[in-house]
Amino acid sequence: MHVLRVIQRSQILRRQLHAMSSTKLPIVVLSGPSGAGKSTLLKKLFANHPDTFGFSVSHTSRNPRDGEEHGKAYWFTNEDEFRKLIGEGKFIETATFSGNLYGTSIQAVKDVQDQGRVCILDIEMEGVKQVKRTDLNETCTFIFVRPPSVEELRKRLEGRNTETPESLAKRLAQAEKELEFANTPGVHDKIIVNDDLAKAYGELEGHILTKIRGDS
């Protein structure tokens, strides 16, 4: 019976993902190391195109930080509930960082698409790999935002004054892996070096709007 339930959940997931991939609107998958500037770029994109884009709010098992609102920053839950949702096939992708679970639910993407907006996912490297294995792969455009150097990334992270020496080391180690993965041919449709905010934003906006128009 357990095997049958797993098969049924897999079939339901495939049908849901196929329905989502049938929309004419692309899904934007944005990734890059923490500190690369993704949030700043997205904030500017949403401000300039308030009716065009929608952000997929991820689930996480970590505790909220100061100023984070449930349903806006993340859908906050505990690890047991998160793993239950995984077992029920509710997620497109999941990843673990610093002992906490993160994931993009099918419903979160559908909610954005139902508003007639282009859905934007801000996810980790492992999440990108998982999305590329689904029926959504052909619908997505994959964009990687990278810092000009690891040393510059270190300075940005230190400048936040939110990292301990241990968490900083973890983020830099993860960044090295993500930068190496980004060099794999064909993984991303666009790689943006964020050494100048205006230039990086122009590249991001231009690439996405071109995809929406269907020019390429």
TrEMBL record:
One GO term describing the cellular component: cytosol
Keywords: ATP-binding, Kinase, Nucleotide-binding, Transferase
Database matches in NCBIfam families: guanyl_kin (TIGR03263)
Pfam family, one: Guanylate_kin
A GO BP annotation: GDP biosynthetic process
PANTHER family: GUANYLATE KINASE, GUANYLATE KINASE-RELATED
Span of domain Guanylate kinase-like: 25-209
Taxonomic lineage of the native organism: Eukaryota, Fungi, Dikarya, Ascomycota, Pezizomycotina
Molecular functions (GO terms): ATP binding; GMP kinase activity
Coiled-coil ranges from the UniProt annotation: none
Entry protein name: Guanylate kinase
Family: Belongs to the guanylate kinase family.
EC number of the protein: 2.7.4.8
Source organism of the structure: Arthrobotrys oligospora (strain ATCC 24927 / CBS 115.81 / DSM 1491) (Nematode-trapping fungus)
